[in-house]
Amino acid sequence: MEMTAVDERRMTELFENIDVPEGVKIELLRGEIVMMAGPDLVHNRIVRSVALQMPSDRWEWLLTQDIDILSEQSEPVPDLVVLESGAGPESGRLLPSAVVTMVVEVVSKTSVDRDYGVKRSLYAAGKIPAYLIVDPIVAHCVLLTEPFGSGDEADYAVQRISKFGESVPVDVLDVELETGDFGILPGVRRHRRP
């Protein structure tokens, strides 16, 4: 069912005014409000490891930053956002997707379908050059580059899968990402994504 402009405005107003409990992450994904519990230590340590590998002379990295994907009525909150130093606005709650170079999502047992599905399409629709999925359930990274298309049809033309322990060349950042210290989520049923 298509949402009307009025429905979309109401959903955005509701999203912007919702009272979020401490430790809960909230996102607006194509008109749907999604809430998640706070992340596991494995998750946070992976995010920290990726962030520390970004050369700070050229790249700025942000945590829990809302991204504005104008064409999508979406405000996802990636686990990590990487942009050129000084590329974003000085202040504000939303960072335009046009200034983002890479987003990183670390998969949790409840985010598998979102991270590999709707977010892949959303970030491609937002023309974000690189989307890195770090998956501690199956111990691999999926680097997606060369976004194309719009709406639900948006996707990335190039997909590269690397197992934990292998380096991930992120050409758009001119970085070789080391993954040897990435942890694995214990006791979570494996999936078959991407």
Instruction: State which percent range the strand residues make up.
Output: 25-35%
- CATH superfamily membership: tt1808, chain A
Q: Per CATH, what is the topology? A: tt1808, chain A
Alpha carbon gyration radius: 16 Å
Mean pLDDT: 90
Summarize the model shown.
The chain is α+β, with helices and mostly antiparallel strands.
What does this structure look like?
One of its GO terms (molecular function) is endonuclease activity. Keywords: Endonuclease, Hydrolase, Nuclease. InterPro entries: Nuclease_put_TT1808 (IPR012296), Restrct_endonuc-II-like (IPR011335), Uma2 (IPR008538). The protein is α+β, with helices and mostly antiparallel strands and 194 residues long. It is built from three helices and twelve strands; from the N terminus they run αββαβββββαβββββ. The chain has a single domain, classed as tt1808, chain A (Alpha-Beta Complex). The protein has a six-stranded mixed β-sheet. Strand 9 (140-148) and strand 10 form a beta hairpin. The model has no long low-confidence stretch (mean pLDDT 90).
Identify the notable features of this structure and list them briefly.
two-stranded antiparallel ribbon, tt1808, chain A, six-stranded mixed beta sheet, 194 residues, Uma2, alpha+beta
List the helices and strands and how they pair.
Blueprint: H1 5-17, E1 25-29, E2 32-36, H2 41-52, E3 59-62, E4 66-68, E5 80-84, E6 94-96, E7 102-106, H3 112-125, E8 130-135, E9 140-148, E10 155-163, E11 168-170, E12 175-177
Parallel strand pairs: 4-6, 7-8
Antiparallel strand pairs: 1-2, 3-5, 5-7, 8-9, 9-10, 11-12
